């Protein structure tokens, strides 16, 4: 669990806000559904691939990500930007998975 939290935030955010680890850990532990359910969620995410359907999106779309996201690497966003019609995008230079635009 700590590994996921460390990957979700940029290192400088954790350094500047050390209490963030404790608060995030407490929140995640309180919401933790159990190992079996957590593993089934990971398997579902890995198996859920709708890239062949993405070009059929019929509404304007927006992709936002951070260059340093270790959980959802920026390459996935680049791929979406290439195949989603009518897409606008912003790639932030910094922010990790839990990026903040402001």
Report on the architecture of this protein.
The protein is mainly alpha-helical and 102 residues long. It folds into 2 domains: 48 residues, no CATH class; 54 residues, no CATH class. The protein is 48% helix and 12% strand. It has 5 helices and 2 strands; from the N terminus they run H-H-H-H-E-H-E. A two-stranded parallel ribbon has the order 1-2. The protein is flat and about 40 Å long. The protein starts with a helix and ends in a 10-residue tail after the last strand. The relative contact order is 0.17.
Strand content bin: 5-15%
Question: Helical percent range?
Answer: 40-55%
Radius of gyration: 16 Å
> What is the end-to-end distance?
27 Å
Q: What oligomeric state is this?
A: single chain
Poorly predicted regions are none
Largest sheet: 2 strands, parallel
SS class: mainly alpha
User: What would you call the shape?
Assistant: flat
Main-sheet strand order equals 1-2
In total, the number of strands is 2
Number of domains: 2
Number of separate helices = 5
Name the average pLDDT: 87
């Amino acid at each position: 669990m700590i590994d996921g939290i460390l990957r979700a935030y940029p290192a400088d955010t954790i350094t500047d806000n050390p209490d963030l680890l404790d608060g995030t850990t407490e929140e995640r532990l309180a919401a933790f559904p159990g190992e079996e359910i957590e593993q089934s969620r990971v398997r579902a995410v890995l198996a859920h691939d709708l890239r062949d359907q993405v070009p059929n999106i019929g509404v304007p779309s927006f992709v936002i990500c951070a260059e340093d996201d270790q959980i959802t690497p920026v390459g996935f966003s680049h791929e979406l930007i290439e195949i989603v019609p009518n897409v606008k995008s912003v790639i932030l230079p910094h922010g990790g998975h839990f990026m903040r635009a402001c």
